[in-house]
Amino acid sequence: MPASPLTRRGFLSAALLAAPFSRLAAFRQIGSRVGSASRFISAVPLGNPGGAPATPFGRLLGSGLDARLFTDLSQLGLTRRTSSPSPRTSPAAPSTSTEEFFVRTAAPPAADGRQWQVALASGGDASPVHLTMSDLDRMAAPGGRYLVECSGNVDQANYGLMSTADWDGVPVTNVLERIGAPRRPYRVLITGLDDHPTLSRTSTPGASWIFTPDELQRAILATRMNGSPLTPNHGAPVRLLVPGWYGCASIKWVNRIEFVEDDAPATSQMLEFAARTHQDASARLARDFTPAVIDTAAMPVRVEKWIVDGRVVYRITGIVWGGNKPTNRLSIRFRSDLPWRPVDDCPLPSSMLTWNLWSHTWRPDSAGRYQIVLRVDDPSIRTRRLDLFFYVREIEIEEI
After folding, report:
1. With the C-alpha atoms ordered 287, 288, 292, 298, is the resulting torsion angle positive or negative?
2. How confident is the model at residue 92 (pLDDT cuts 50, 70, 90)?
3. How far is CA 91 from the centre of its chain?
4. 190, exposed or middle or buried, with CB in 10 Å at 0-12, 13-18, 19+?
5. Is the link from the previous residue into 94 a cis peptide, with omega within 30 of 0?
6. Is the pLDDT higher at 77 or at 361?
7. Angle at 339 between CA 337 and CA 345, to 5 degrees
8. Phi and psi dihedrals of 333, rounded to 5?
9. What is the pLDDT of residue 182?
10. Per-residue model confidence as pLDDT tens digits over 98-146
11. What is the mean pLDDT of residues 338-351?
12. pLDDT (tens digit, 9 = 90+) per residue, 364-378?
């Protein structure tokens, strides 16, 4: 095992209780030339340390606040099989279709999106200013390709509560200019119309988060996803998108933005997701919370078995994401008694706000059960979840 199971289990338990391509260098690891005698054999299922059954993909499970839809990450970068197990992926980070984008909550309000308004309140007795959807459409601008990961992405069978899409909308900083900053120290409360009346096993209604103005510099009020208007389960008609932060802060169905006092209490949403966003357990005021940012992380998403010059080799494709410093200094290990090896093919990403593909070719010495673990070999980069061996994937090798 790569780490004490108590350490990992303790982290996961806290999380659940809180809410609950440059080309390969000629296969240097196997010392053989990639020749014409190469053929794809099969995909090898990735398991998980707990042995949980596979999760269905592509369909909504549950309803309301308990709804989940998992993205099938094993399809990332998958193209037509070629005669070589060398990388076949595009340098551009692949996006997720809207239909396959993960869903954490399916509780859209019963409201007419055409009549939707976002109230902008400066606090005190001043009447709020209202932005209509027509206003937002006029202010909208192209956004970017951003990853969203649920802070409760703990399903070891797939870690599928994570997706990437192209988002367009209005920079939040432009919206705040409509209100005018108060002279006193202040924060920004962004609220969504999440008042689902049905009791939930996994969440509490009431979606809102409090930010400092600086934390919203890259945030947008998204009105379009993958070139089309938002769908109800993804926050239509308008949602907050905070690049680089866990999804719990990207409030859906936004209907109010207001300035609040610097000593405002944390919202119920912030408290619910505190453990999963690495907050101090004693945090009760919004200013006690640190930004809910995603640390740099990496994991495998697909393993393929190939025959190369008569020998079995395994090609592992994975992703790296999170953090604010692009890195390609990834190492991989297959069991705690085996050495770390640099990942064969890991281009330096241009941005960590989406996922980026890497690949590695491996020839195990013996059949058996292996655990695939990644690490970042740069001490200046924070990797809290990787440090806890959070994204471990298991694989059964039957042929070598």
Report:
1. positive
2. low
3. 19
4. buried
5. no
6. 361
7. 140
8. -140, 150
9. 86
10. 999 999 999 888 777 789 999 999 977 778 999 999 999 999 999 999 9
11. 96
12. 999 999 999 999 999
Q: DSSP 3-state assignment of 287?
A: helix
- Written as one string, the DSSP assignment of 87-104 is ----SSPPP--GGGS-BS
Report the alpha-carbon distance of residue 108 to residue 111 in Å, rounded. Answer: 8
**Are the C-beta atoms of 56 and 100 separated by less than 8 Å?**
no
Cα 271 to Cα 348: distance, rounded to the nearest angstrom: 36
Element (DSSP H or E) covering residue 298:
strand 297-308
| Structure-block tokens of residue 60 | 């909504």
The whole-angstrom distance between residue 272's C-alpha and the CA centroid of its chain comes to 18
Region of 255 on the Ramachandran plot (φ > 0 left; ψ -120 to 50 alpha; else beta): alpha
- Asked whether the predicted pLDDT for residue 21 surpasses 60, the reply is no
Which phi and psi angles does 177 have, rounded to 5°?
-65, -25
Residue 177 exposed, middle or buried by CB count within 10 Å (0-12, 13-18, 19+): exposed
pTM beyond 0.85: yes
User: Nearest Cα to 254, choosing from 78, 109, 91, 74?
Assistant: 109
Q: How confident is the model at residue 51 (pLDDT cuts 50, 70, 90)?
A: low
Q: Are 251 and 114 spatial neighbours (Cβ–Cβ below 8 Å)?
A: no
Instruction: In whole angstroms, give the CA distance from residue 322 to residue 306.
Output: 31
**Residue 265 gets which letter from DSSP?**
B
Contact 333, 342 (CB under 8 A): no
Structure tokens at 365: 């010495």
| Start-to-end C-alpha separation, the chain | 22
Two tokens at 159?
A: 């870690």
Q: Is pLDDT at 268 greater than 80 in this prediction?
A: yes
pLDDT at 323 over 80: yes
Q: How far is CA 77 from the centre of its chain?
A: 17
Structure tokens at 38: 């190469």
More confident residue, 199 or 280: 280
When mean pLDDT is compared across 1-15, 75-89, 294-308, 310-324, the lowest value belongs to 1-15
Spatial neighbors of 186 by CB under 8 A, at least 6 apart, are: 123, 213, 259, 260, 261, 262
Strand order across the 356-362 sheet: 38-44, 297-308, 311-321, 356-362
